[in-house]
Amino acid sequence: MKFNINNVNITTQTFHGAREGASECHIILSCHPNKCYQTQLEETIQAIQTLQDGRFGTCLFVRFFLSDAANQVHTLEKEWSKLASEAAVSIIQQPPLDGTKIAAWCYFATEMTHTREKENSLFSHNGYNHIWHTERGEDGTSYDQTFALLERENERADALGITLAENCIRTWFYVQNIDVNYMGMVKARKNLFESYGLTACTHYIASTGIEGRSSQPASSIRLDSYFIRGIHPSQIQYLYALSHLNPTYEYGVTFERGTAVHYGDRKHIFLSGTASIDHHGEILHEGDIKMQTLRMWENCDALLKEAGATLDHMAQILVYLRDTADYTTVKEMFDKRFPETPKVILLAPVCRPGWLIEMEGIAIIENNEAKYPNY
Q1: What pTM does this model have?
Q2: Which of 324, 283, 274 is CA-nearest to residue 301?
Q3: pLDDT of residue 18
Q4: Which residues contact 45 (CB under 8 A, 6 or more apart)?
Q5: DSSP code, position 101
Q6: Mean pLDDT across the stretch 261-270?
């Protein structure tokens, strides 16, 4: 569904659950360009306030995409504090490529009860506790910051009686100057994962590692995470699509290509950052943005099919480009293929220079597994 609130363009995708299940909605907000940041910010915040007062339920998570974090974060935090919202808030510099200064992805769900436990914000329904968190690194190299961030994630999980290995469903690593700092993040994640039993013989965590900046120049890594307490290991399915993609450990990285979470009434399918790659781990169609986009879609579709879904089930999509000159071509392709899907195209170089484009997203499909509680 597309509509407009207070000069802000809204695109929504809603999944309506079974009678006792929650409804959920992914929403992308984008402003009109050619307005000053303060105006775009105020209109965006007011639009979110209107959405919170409407039929979509409770806002669980918001990610803001900014064009210039150093000059914009303070004002954003000030304006956001005026809202009566318990949502977890992520703020990252990844300029929207439509010429605006701010865009946002919001996740809403009905039937949720909010509580706080051990300084964590929990949204709960049917015995599941959904925990979104965001934090930035502070001192040291990208290796040091990644290691410290993941240690703190595990400490937070331990305080809630859960673990990084069993309950973390999704992570996002935002790397300042990715061409320089990415390998430090990769090595730290691998070393810490091994100490927590996350190996090639067990499993990893769905993830995106992408260019992104915080407002603090010394912060080279920012980490967003999503945990579920109350989930059983049998409800988590890892996706591989080995006909199209190679295992990530073959080239030294430690994440799952995708993860499906099975509820009684639905599946959530989390696609990690996916690019134009083959089953040997090689970049396909170097220098050709159209062909890389098509292969990227093919890879995503192969992952989704392992969970019984297709690209038509995408509830939201984030698209990352290295080169602003590719924006017009990519926008035309995505608008044609996904005309009604909430999506945003961002300036955010991928971890290998040869990849011109990467996408991630969340799909939702119906499910019928009565042995599990509904979402």
Answers
A1: 0.97
A2: 274
A3: 73
A4: 79, 80, 82, 83
A5: S
A6: 97
